[in-house]
Sequence to fold (141 residues):
Amino acid sequence: MGKISHKGVVEAVDADTVKVRITQGSACAACRVANHCSAAESKEKTVEVVCTDAGKYAVGDEVVVSMPMGNGSRAVSLAFVFPFLVMLAVLLLTLWATGDEALSALLAIASLIPYYAFIYLSEKKIAKKFSFVIEQSTNIN
Fold:
């Protein structure tokens, strides 16, 4: 399984956490005419990397952070596929039980409230599965 890697710069170091600023670019950001095209976007993001050896990094160090490639499909499933299946199940069950289309639609939409509340309450557990690791470090100071 591959990895998603980003080069970044250490912004802050705590006891067991390193905050790394990465530039996330679109697929066409490396194109020669990217400066003249509105489709070529890049965004700066800060990611937290939990590591036991955080003390060896200093602000300004250039690092490479990575995450397993499979986490992308897992994130899409949690954010879009599972909620869609929940909505569809509630819609069909309510429609079958009551025959009322308006009630079925409202309950299907309302079923997302407990789903996303569960996701919110499970944030720490989910964050462990989607964590970055620092692969390499090059001091740029």
